Amino acid sequence: MPDISCVGKYFTILNLAAGALLFHATLQADTPDGGDDGNPIHHQFMFSANQAGHNLSAYRLDNQKGELIPLNGAPFETGRFPVSVAASPDGKYVYVTNQGADSISAFAIDAQHNTLRPVPGSPFPAGPYPDAITISPDGRFVYVANEDSQLVRIFQVDPGSGRLLNTGHTATTGKHPIYITLTPDGKFALVANFNDASINIYRVDPDNGTLADTGALARTDDNPIHIAITPDSRFAYIANYGSTTVSAFSITPDGKLTPVPGSPFVAGAKPYSVTVDSSERHVFVVNWAGHDVSVFNLDAENGAISEIKGSPYPTDWYPYDVVVAPDDQHLYVANNGAANISAYEIDTVSGSLAPQRHSPFTADLGPYSLAITR
Question: What domains sit in the chain, N to C, each tagged with a CATH number?
Answer without folding.
Answer: 29-362 (2.130.10.10)
